[in-house]
Amino acid sequence: MNKRINLLLFIFLFISIVIGCGTLKNKYTASENAENYYKKAYDIIDNATHNSLSDSLSSQALKYIDKAISLNSNKSKYYRVKGSAYIHRREYETAIPYFEKAIEIDSNNSLAWMGLGISHENISKFEIAEKYYQKALDDIDLSRTIYFNLGLLYSKWGKSDLSIKSYTNAIKIYPKYRGAYLNRGKVKLGLKKYAEAIIDFNMAIKLDPTDKVSYNNRGLAQHYLNQFNEAIQDFKKALEINLDNSFNENFDTNKYAYNNIANSYYAMNDIKNACIYWNKAIESGYKYQVEWKEEYNIEDPIELIKKHCSG
Predict the structure, then answer these.
(1) Average per-residue pLDDT in the chain?
(2) Tell me, what's the pLDDT at 279?
(3) Which distant-in-sequence residues (6+ apart) come within 8 Å of 255 by Cβ?
(4) Is 165 exposed, middle or buried (0-12, 13-18, 19+ CB in 10 A)?
(5) Helix pair angle (228-240, 212-224), 10° resolution
(6) Which of 71, 84, 192, 277 falls between 20 and 30 A from 159, CA-CA?
(7) Mean pLDDT of all residues in 57-76
(8) Which residue in 133, 192, 203 sits closest to 168, CA to CA?
(9) Which of 179-188, 269-278, 285-294 has the lowest mean pLDDT?
(10) Backbone angles phi, psi at 49, to 5 degrees
């Protein structure tokens, strides 16, 4: 009788241990799977081309991070990545609650504070964005990126001097920060400091010889300095560089390069080539904006074609 009781007790304990182990295993597997999905989403976000993603990639990142959150809803970094995916989709107001949730879970998540800054910057709430960026600056490891984002913010805000200062701070921390050179050059280009802008574009190209945007912008600076042959070479170099869909969907530079080439030929009184490239610009989807006449001294290529290319 005692042997039978002992046997039943042993069987009960064995089953309990197996069930218990199975429960622990299931919990571990769910947590592990959540982290794997997070890593897949993070890798997509982290490998953005010129900080931009194609629609298909951002959608894929959202699918992965949603699976991660469904398996573990208590990770601050998961919500931060979801917010970042929406930023890449330019759905800034949709992104904000996810960054707020990330901070609710972990108030020291500097990337989430930065995400709030980016989101508010892009809905033109500049003062709020500035405060969030300043909060993110508490993280020394993130400071060069925050200074870069402050450069973008101040440029949109019309505070060019602060923009240049912010990009310079980013470069001081990381002298090989290609994007900071590029963007500082853009600000200087807007201020008509063309020679200074070229120095920054030169550095950006040195750090990344496939930087289409820097070639195009350097060409513009050279055009404004009446260095038309050099400008044409840079515009054509920009056209030669083919990047991925993430770049093409967010930075359609080719149609502008065609129009810039045409304007440089026109400035040299080479009407034949000017007409060829004005037409290429229009065929590529170039849309003229009236304010560009005052801002950049650029005329409508359609009107120029009517005037100079009818024959």
Answers:
(1) 89
(2) 95
(3) 281, 284, 285, 286
(4) middle
(5) 170
(6) 84
(7) 95
(8) 203
(9) 285-294
(10) -85, 120
Residue 18 has a CB neighbour count (10 Å cut-off) of 10
pLDDT above 80: residue 25: no
Judge whether 267 and 290 are in contact, CB under 8 Å.
no
* Cα angle: 52, vertex 56, 58; to 5 degrees: 50
Distance (Å, whole) CA 4 – CA 289: 92
d(CA 129, CA 119): 8
Is 132 within 8 Å of 116 (Cβ atoms)? yes
Rounded to two decimals, the pTM is: 0.81
What's the whole-number mean pLDDT along residues 92-96? 97
d(CA 116, CA 300): 38
Q: Are 149 and 118 in contact (CB under 8 A)?
A: yes
Condensed to tens digits (0 to 9), the pLDDT of residues 128-172 reads 999 999 999 989 899 999 999 999 999 999 999 999 999 999 999
Task: Residue 182: name the closest of 208, 154, 147 by CA.
Answer: 208
Rounded to whole angstroms, the Cα distance separating 274 from 259 reads 9
Return d(Cα 103, Cα 162) in angstroms, integer.
28
Round to whole Å and give the CA distance between 274 and 309.
9
Rg (CA), the chain: 27
**Phi, psi angles (nearest 5°) of residue 163:** -65, -50
First to last CA, the chain: 113
Report the interhelical angle of 254-267 vs 301-308 (nearest 10°): 40
What pLDDT, on the 0 to 100 scale, is given for residue 19? 46
Confidence of residue 305 (pLDDT cuts 50, 70, 90): very high
Q: Residues 46-58: pLDDT tens digits? A: 886 556 778 889 8
Burial grade of 251 (CB within 10 A; 0-12, 13-18, 19 or more): middle
**Alpha helices by DSSP H, 47-125:** 55-71, 76-88, 92-105, 110-121
